[in-house]
Amino acid sequence: MTFSNLKPALRHFQRNKLHAAINILGLALGMAACLVIYLITSYELSFDTFRDGRDRIFRTYSQFSGTFDGTNRGVPAALGPWAADHLAGVEAVAPFHTMSAKISVVQPDGSLKEFDNQPDIARVSPAYFQVFSDYQWLSGSPESSLTEPYSVVLTDEKAGKYFNLDHPEEAVGRRLLYGDSLYVTVTGIIEKEKRQTDLYFSDFISFSTINAYRKFKRNIRLDDWSSTNSSSQVFLKLQPGVSPDKIQDGLKEAEALYKKAGDQWGFVAAYIMQPLRELHFNGKLGIFDQTNWSAASKPTMNLLILIAVLLLLIAAVNFINLETAQSTLRAREIGVRKVLGGTRGGLVRQFLGETFMLTVIAIALSVMLTKWALGFFDEFIPEGVSFEPLSPGSLAFLGGITLVVTLLAGAYPAFVLSGFRPVQALRDKIIVSMRGSGSLNLRRALVVFQFVVAQVLILGTLTVGRQISYLLNADMGFDRNAVIYFSTPWQDTTGRKHVLYQELKRIPEVLAVSLNDGPPASTSYSSNIIRYNNGQEEISTNVYQKFGDTAFIDLYDFQLLAGRNVQNSDTLKELVINETYAHELGFSNPEDVVGKMVKYSSKMVPIVGVVRDFHIFSLRDAIAPTAIACTNRDFTDFGLKLQTKGNSPGDFTSIISKITDKWKSLYPDTEFNYEFLDETIAKFYEAEQRTSKLSRTATLMAILLSCLGLLGLVSFSAVQRTKEIGIRKVLGASVASIVALLSREFITLIGVAFVLAAPLAWIFARKWLSRFAYHFELDWTVFVLTGLLAVLIAFLTMSLQSIRAARANPAESLKSE
Predict the structure, then answer these.
(1) Can you give the pTM of this predicted structure?
(2) Hey, what's the torsion of the CAs at 369, 373, 375, 380, to 10 degrees?
(3) Is the pLDDT of residue 651 over 70?
C-alpha cells in the first residue's frame, strides 16, 4: 500500500470511526478465539513428541470380557518379566510400578527431615531408560545406577529439594526413607525434563528392590498372572521395522497364561498395545496413577478447532457485510480515481491494503484479548498453556492468520467496490442491488449461516447447562449433604483410629460417625466375582463392593428395602446388596433374596438385606450390581455427618475446627485433610462444567459477531432504501411500520436459520447426552427458547439501525430528486 493510498484510507477510517471500530472489534474477537484455541491445541499435541523412536513405543493395557467387561490401564505384574523373555522383535521392555509415599531425608547426624507425600515415584528397571532414552544423566548411568536393590535415581530438581544442594550431583551417596521402613541410597541424578511429557516421575527406585523389600514383594508378585492393578505398567519399544501386529499376536500367549491363572473368575483378558502418541488423549484409560493431570480429549480439541473456524468465518462475514453496506459512501472516491486513470487492479490492492491495516490493528487487540482470556478462563485452559507473542510459533501463526483474514474478509468487498462504473459513481447512483442479485443472495446466505451457528450454540449451551444441573442435583440414592470424609495415615498400626472414632462421637455437632473404606461414590472402586447357584445354573456376577461398619448405611441414609443391616465383624460374613444385583440373580421382590447364600471368594455368605439402588460412579455409568459388607480390620477412612443449618462450607468452620483438634491430638505430625462428599461428586463433572463454560463463551461470541453482521446488513438495507423510506414518511408512515419494513426480511432469514439449526442441534444434543446413562429429557421447550432468544436478540440489534433510519428527516433523503 503506497503513501498516496494510505492518506485516503486514513481519512475514510476517520470519517467512519464506528464502522472501523466494529470491523476491528469483530475481527479481533474472532482472531483472539483462534489464537487461544491454537495455544491449547498446540500445547496438547506437544506431549512426548520429542521422544526418540516415539512411533515404536507402546503401552500395554488390559481389556476384559465375560462376567466383567471393562479396561484397566495396568497389566499383571508378571507380564513385564515374561515379555522381556518371550517377545521377539522388541528392543526393550520397561515394566514399572507407580506409587506415592511420605519421604524423609536422612541427615548426616542420623536425624530425619520429613517431606509430605510425594506422588511422582516409580519402581523401574534399567530398561525404562532404554525405552525412554531422552533423559540427560548428570551423574550415574542406567546400566549402573539401577541394578542393585535399595537404589534410587532422582531428578536434579528433586535432589535439590530434598537435600538443599546447589549442585544436585552431590546428592549421590545420600540416603532417603520412603514410608516408614524403606531406606534407599541415591545412585544417580538426571535432568528434569522441561518439555511437555506425561512421564512425570522424579523418583526412580530400582526394580530389584521389589523382591528385596518385604512390603513390595507382598504387594507386587512378579509371577502373578491372576490380578491386575492400574499402578503396574509395561512399555514396549519395538525394533525398527517390526510390525506392531506381530507383537500383538505374541501377546496372545500371555493372555492364555492369564486365563489359566484366573479361569475361575469367568472373564478373560486381552493385552492391547497403545501407541505412545495416543497416551495423552485416552481419557477412558487415563494416564498413570497418582498424577493430578488427566488425559486430554481429542473430541473436545476437534470441537475447539471447529468453533475457532466458525467464529473466524463469522467475523469475516461481518466484515464483508459491513464493507458492502458502506459501499455507496465511497462511490465518488472510486469514480474520481477511475477518471484519473486508476485501474481496477490498483483499487483492489488499495482496498486489500485497507483490510490489511484493519487486520493488523485487530491482531494487536487480539493479542491483548488473548492474554486476558488465558487468565479469565483458567479453569478451562490447561495449566501449562502460555502465550509468548514474539515466539517463532506465535509469530508464524499471527502472520498466517493475518494473511488469511485479509484475503478472506477483504477480497469480496475489494472486487465489488473496484467494479463500480465511474459515471454512476460520480453521480452517486451506485446501487448494490437488493432484489434478486447474486451478491444479495450471498449476503442472505451469510446471515443465515451466522444464525445457524449461533442457534446451534444457543441450544447446545442450554442443553449442557440443564444436564449439569440435572447431574449435580440428581438423587444418588444416598445422603451427600453435610458429609465429610477423610483417611487416616496408611502407616497407622497402633489403633489410634478407634480412639479417634470415640472422640469424634463426643462432638455434639457430629451426628454420625462411620469407619469404612471410602464414601459410596468416588473415583476408586473394587469388585469381586460372586457366584449364586439357583438350583439350575450358577450365576457369576462382577459385583462392586463397599465396606463399612454398621453405621455406614445409617450415616448415608441408604433406604433398606428388605432384611437388615450388616453386623460388625473383622471378616466378611454377610452381604447387603442393591436392587440391581437382586434383579440379576432373578429376584424382582427384594424380600425373596434375603437369606440366599452366595459364594464370595472361597466361602459361602448369606445375603441379609437389600438397599435401594445407589450410584457408586458418576451418572455417565449405569448403576451396577453392588454389595455392602463389614470387615472392620481393613477400614482406613472416616465418614462424618455434620449438623448445620446450611450446606455452605462456611457453615462448618467451627465444627471442622473441633474435628481438627481431635485429629491433632492423635496424629500431631500429619496434616488433617478432608473433603465434602457433595464437592467430590461435583468434581465428577468437571469436564462437563468446562464444556459448559466453553459453550457459553462461544455462544456469546457467536451472538455478538452475528449481531454485528446483522447490523451491517440492516445498515446496507437502510442506505439502499433511503428514498423509499423518505417517501413513506411523507405519505404518513409511522416509525413502527418502517422498522417492520426493514426488519421483516431479516426475521424471515432468522426463521430459515432456525429451521436449519433445529435438526442439527437436535442431533448434536442427543449425541452428547448419549454419553450419560442418566440425563434429562430433551423436549420442545429448549427449541422454543432457542428460537425466541435468537429472534429477540436479532430484533433488538436491528431496531438500533431501523429506528435511526425511520426517524431521519425525509427532506434530506429526497433532496436529490
Answers:
(1) 0.76
(2) -170
(3) no
